[in-house]
Amino acid sequence: MGFLAKDDEWHDCLKEVSQWASGTKMRRIFVTMVAYSQVSNVKELWEKNWELLSDDIQHYQRSLLNRPELHLSPDETKELCLIELEKLFHKIGKSLVDIPGMPIPNCNTFDRANRLLAEELSYNRSSMSTEFEKNFPKLNHDQRVAYDQIMESINTNNGKCFFIEGFGGSGKTFLWKVISAKLRSEGRIVLCVATSGIAALLMDGGRTAHSRFRIPIKLNPTSTCDIYQGSDVADLHQNASLIIWDEAPMAHRNAIEALERTLRDIMRKHNKNNLTKPFGGMTVVFGGDFRQTLPIIKKGSRADIVDASLKMSYVWQYLEILKLTENLRLRQPNSSETELNDIADFSKWILQIGDGEDCSVFCEANIDIPSELMVERQGEPIIDIVREIYPHLECNYVNPEYLASRAILAPHHEMVHKLNEYVLSQIPGEEITYLSSDYVQNENGKQNIEHPEFPAELLNSLQIPGFPDHEIKLKLGVPVILLRNIDQASGLCNRTRLIIKKNGQMVH
Ligand SMILES: Nc1ncnc2c1ncn2[C@@H]1O[C@H](COP(=O)(O)OP(=O)(O)OP(=O)(O)O)[C@@H](O)[C@H]1O
């Protein structure tokens, strides 16, 4: 949160990790700290810990160069370690150059101007071509219509914009795969984004829209993206053939409008007429389903949510709507007939609800939940739900497939805490409690006197949305859910589920 004046926690954390982690792991942790945890003096953190961060560098160089006698000087080791750090920063769209106080490796390994472009052009064309050949013939009629129209817009430089509307399982992600493989097999660039990190993971080379387009967190109706003519990000966009934005109905229309305005500005480099074209003449494909989650407006009314939706944007008039109507999940080759019938019934039922077929004009309805979807009430509701969703948890919690195939959703944090507490109590093993920092050190390293009106006990008991709790309890083997986008390329993003493999004092 950036409230800590000193970095003792980070130094202690690196020391603890160094007892069990390799230099490679330590560098990843260092990058995560610096990029996401607002270390106040990065230079000092680096200078005091560079030896720990580079403990495998000499070994790595020896095997890379096949020179077992190689001996690196401290300066050479530092330099190589900085290069490795720079690689990791690049993976998350950052660079040492952006971090005040950090030295920059003195080498030509990184051509910053071309880094983003090089990454998008690094796909293996022949494997992309094989993937395309394999999947293209499988496209159904709706997918094929969409594919043809999108490709025609790209190939004729028509700059059309589309909205591919399809419920869950109608083959949107599959279509993105086929189009991306086709373009990448020809050495062309397609920028795949999704509104949430977890959906972006399903797209090849996917990123969140906010990160790829540098969309500001605080948006207003005139916002633009943080992309400027002449920057390497602008260069990437100017060279792209297509943008695919999945889960578009979840995005605030101001975010989409910010991209629209920005593209007009940066695409005029090729042709000044692009300033007057929607999305600067780029072919853009949005996908999603308005029955699913709409933009989240804090304490917003129904009208506020509708107003924030893509359909209310001036951009909507530019979009050609194409529909995917077949449930392709029913084509799963390994499913039994009963399973397929169950999926078909469930998807029909959920679509009926999504379409509001049983709703009155005031959008109120009584929904009959089929009995097989209900949890039978035997005693305490929390115990009943956990028993139903996580049968024999005490033996099964070590099985990743078991954990990955189930989840309990709850609308409020209070209920999440109760469920967590109960589930944790059912898992064997020692419980470890981690606390957040709750005092400020003065310059002598002593604790500052707390404010009498706000005793620490009171502050520590507060549970505020968007603010981590003071206390978290964990056990070895428990599943946890990540609530930040840390390293998209490695799959670490908001909503990624992880398993606790090690419990330290400072790190887990
Ligand atoms: N043309 C196709 N031929 C064979 N299988 C397909 C085809 N299109 C999609 N599928 C398969 O159907 C399933 C659902 O498709 P997909 O994930 O693309 O749907 P989706 O619309 O993106 O769903 P969601 O909105 O839930 O993410 C996947 O397993 C996918 O591989």
UniProtKB/TrEMBL annotation:
Protein name, per record: ATP-dependent DNA helicase
SUPFAM superfamilies to which the protein is assigned, alphabetical: P-loop containing nucleoside triphosphate hydrolases
Organism: Linum trigynum
Gene Ontology BP terms: DNA recombination; DNA repair; telomere maintenance
Domain DNA helicase Pif1-like DEAD-box helicase intervals: 138-357
Sequence ranges assigned to domain DNA helicase Pif1-like 2B in this UniProt record: 457-500
Keyword vocabulary terms for this entry: ATP-binding, DNA damage, DNA recombination, DNA repair, Helicase, Hydrolase, Nucleotide-binding
Enzyme Commission (EC) number: 5.6.2.3
Catalysed reaction equations from the record: ATP + H2O = ADP + phosphate + H(+)
Signal peptide: none
Pfam families named in the record: PIF1 (PF05970), Pif1_2B_dom (PF21530)
Class of enzymatic activity (EC top level): isomerase
Essential cofactor(s): Mg(2+)
Superkingdom of this protein's organism: Eukaryota
Protein family (similarity comment): Belongs to the helicase family.
GO terms, molecular function: 5'-3' DNA helicase activity; ATP binding; hydrolase activity
